Amino acid sequence: MESQPQPVLKLGAALGEGPIWVGRDRALWFVDIKAPAIYRFDPETEDLETWAAPAQVGWIVPAARGDFIVGLQTGVHRFDPSTSAFTLLHDPEAHLPGNRLNDATVDHRGRIWLGSMDDAEEAVSGRIYRMDEGSTTDTGLSPVTITNGPAVSPDGTILYHVDTLGRTIWQSRIGDDGTLEGTAPFVTIEEGAGHPDGPVVDAEGCVWIGLFGGWGVRRYDPAGELISHVAFPVANITKIAFGGGDLSTVYATTARKGLSEAELQEQPYAGDLFAFRPGVRGLAAHHALL
């Protein structure tokens, strides 16, 4: 594997998103929000499995009982790949049919942190929620049009959450009871560099952010200083995941959404899955206690 991104799966996703390495499967799971579909990719065999989703699907995370939890436009569902069944657990925004769930992560306590957004990308209606076993709580963070992330620091004390259209990554302290305090800007992406999409934290506590329309991925240290940039041959990088047996390979989802026919001709790999070696390891995904 090279240090520069290389396409490893030809997919042409409209809006590839949410990659996550699931160690028990030795495979990468991710979604195409607009297809809508869920994918399982085995890098060793290059096999790709596909499941159709019943509504736009923003994310997938492994559950402790062996199946998965997914975020659909119609709410949080349990997903069983063996039967292709989706079972509704809770819809935190049943009163907002124009919204959809967009991104999520699981912390070391098994809680799911998830965000929503206005599907039309206009209304300021996207919020961040915390989902514990049996309950879903609005974190009280100010609403934005498009939320992304969240991501959690290695010690579980900081939540990184993204206002995509505002081009800002925020950070909040996580209390023992899950309440958020001390919310402050972490990084603001300068005009012309794209919009911050999905964040991921590596084993050294640094934050990686995909740049939608920015032709790359950035890595920031815990103080918010830019320490590296990885350029891609496509414009829309949505999110990365650390994978492989030693979590030292980065997989990146990309998107064709918003590109003109001329731009698609210039970007033949748009919407494909990429991989590269970053020289740092990631963190193993936690399982949701649901």
How confident is the prediction overall: mean pLDDT? Answer: 97
Low-confidence stretches: none
> Helical element count?
1
Percent helix, as a range, is: under 10%
Per DSSP E runs of 2 or more residues, the count of β-strands stands at 24
> What distance lies between the first and last C-alpha atoms, to the nearest angstrom?
36 Å
Structural class: mainly beta
With strands numbered from the N-terminus, the spatial order across the biggest sheet is 1-24-23-22
- Shape summary: globular
Order of helices and strands: EEEEEEEEEEEEEEEEEEEEEEEHE
Radius of gyration (CA) equals: 17 Å
Strand portion, in percent? over 45%
Overall description:
This protein has 290 residues and is mostly beta strands. The protein is 2% helix and 50% strand. The protein is built from one helix and 24 strands. The radius of gyration is 17 Å and the shape is globular. The N and C termini lie far apart (36 Å).
